[in-house]
């Protein structure tokens, strides 16, 4: 958290607190709140096999959810402060908090916070630093090999990201970023702990009324909590798990197209997004020692469409939907039956922006 405190101290030095006090902060701060309702057709990302077992009530261990689908409501609040630190160069500090609540399955509730500092280095170059923290996220129930009992599997996520954006011309910009993630699981599943490093490149083209973005990322995950003594014999794999050495490499690709326009006297936008990831596990253990990861390949595809319309100068309505699937392949046929899934979502919400002025 020390770098986060550094952002705070830098912001305070720009505020001019002794002279302007709280009023000086508020006159340079914008606030935004939003409420978004999202329907998820496959809350636990169950495979077809596990979905059928749940519906037929023949699970090895009863999942602690009332329904396989659910309605989630996200309540989000954001504050952005833009002090005058450097003449003609924009400085901003942004903080966001999100509370996610499920209608039927509160075990899937989660919260997160995000802190971002952004500084123009020149008219064409901008640097950004972001810290993201999610205290707890529930995946599903897994068998703990140490106690031979089934427990809730949860993790905490700590993430840092640094971006450098270059705008050679007003129609184009390019961003290189480096993201660092730390996954820390609850007591029963510390063998799943891991660290990830992901460099990424984004290219954006902005012709009049359009925004076209293309991304490529390369993710390297180190399963730092893995211990070879925790390996389970292959004939014990009856339910979904991540037993074994979970190191992987992943290529990710995405393209988004956004169109902004006026309709019925309102500002509107439409956007389409396509994402594809290709993950291959790198364990050097053979099929008999690590059947869940040996020569395993996960491919995911996601497609989203969304639109917004400004109801007033400060109130915006958003609607959208998406379809996602993962196909897993490995020498052990059971892996595909356990890890492949499909889900779709629909969402609708409102964003309200307001600004304090002195």
Number of helices: 4
Tell me the overall shape: globular
Distance between the termini: 32 Å
Number of domains: 1
The strands making up the biggest β-sheet line up spatially as 1-2-3-4-5-6-7-8-9-10-11-12-13-14
CATH architect. name:
Beta Barrel
The CATH class is identified as Mainly Beta
Radius of gyration: 23 Å
Largest sheet report: 14 strands, antiparallel, barrel
The secondary structure category is: mainly beta
Tell how many strands the DSSP assignment holds: 14
Low-confidence stretches: 1-13
| CATH-assigned fold name | Porin
The share of residues in helices is 10-25%
Order of helical and strand elements: HHEHEEEEEEEEEEEEHE
CATH superfamily: monomeric porin ompg
Mean pLDDT: 90
What report would you give on this structure?
The protein has a 14-stranded antiparallel barrel. α1 packs across α2. The two termini are 32 Å apart. It has a single domain, classed as Porin (Beta Barrel), CATH 2.40.160.40. It is mainly beta and 358 residues long. It has four helices and 14 strands.
How is this fold's topology laid out?
Elements: H1 2-15, H2 17-26, E1 29-40, H3 48-55, E2 70-81, E3 91-102, E4 110-120, E5 125-144, E6 149-169, E7 172-185, E8 194-205, E9 210-222, E10 248-263, E11 266-281, E12 297-310, E13 315-329, H4 333-339, E14 341-355
Antiparallel strand pairs: 1-2, 1-14, 2-3, 3-4, 4-5, 5-6, 6-7, 7-8, 8-9, 9-10, 10-11, 11-12, 12-13, 13-14
């Amino acid at each position: 958290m020390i770098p986060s405190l550094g952002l705070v101290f830098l912001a305070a030095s720009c505020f001019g607190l002794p002279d302007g006090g709280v009023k000086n902060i508020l006159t340079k701060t914008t606030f935004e709140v939003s409420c978004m309702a999202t329907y998820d057709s496959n809350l636990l990302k169950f495979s077809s096999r596990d979905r059928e077992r749940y519906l037929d009530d023949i699970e090895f261990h009863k999942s602690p959810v009332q329904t396989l689908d659910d309605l989630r409501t996200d309540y989000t609040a954001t504050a952005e402060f833009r002090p005058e630190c450097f003449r003609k160069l924009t400085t901003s500090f942004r903080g966001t908090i999100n509370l996610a609540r499920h209608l039927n399955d509160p075990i899937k509730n989660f919260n997160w916070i995000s802190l971002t500092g952004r500084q123009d280095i020149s008219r064409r170059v901008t640097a950004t630093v972001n810290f993201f923290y999610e205290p707890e996220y529930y995946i599903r129930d897994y068998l703990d090999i140490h106690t031979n009992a089934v427990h809730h599997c949860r993790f905490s996520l700590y993430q840092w990201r640094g971006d450098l954006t270059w705008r050679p011309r007003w129609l184009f910009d390019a961003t290189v970023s480096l993201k660092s993630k730390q996954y820390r699981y609850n007591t029963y599943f510390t063998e799943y702990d891991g660290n990830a490093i992901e460099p990424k490149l984004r290219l954006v083209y902005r012709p009049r009324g359009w925004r076209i973005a293309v991304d490529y990322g390369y993710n390297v995950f180190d399963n730092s909590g893995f211990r070879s003594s925790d390996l389970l014999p292959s004939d014990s794999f009856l339910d979904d798990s991540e037993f074994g050495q979970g190191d992987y490499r992943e290529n990710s690709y995405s393209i988004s197209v956004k169109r902004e326009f006026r309709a019925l006297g309102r500002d509107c936008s439409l956007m389409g997004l396509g994402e594809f990831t290709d993950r291959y596990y790198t364990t050097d253990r053979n099929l008999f020692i690590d059947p869940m990861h040996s020569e395993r390949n996960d491919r995911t595809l996601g497609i989203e469409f969304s639109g917004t319309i400004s109801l007033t100068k400060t109130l915006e309505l958003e609607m959208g939907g998406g379809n996602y699937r993962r196909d897993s392949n490995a020498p052990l046929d059971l892996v595909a039956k356990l890890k492949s899934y499909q889900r779709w979502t629909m969402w609708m919400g409102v964003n309200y922006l307001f600004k304090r002025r002195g």
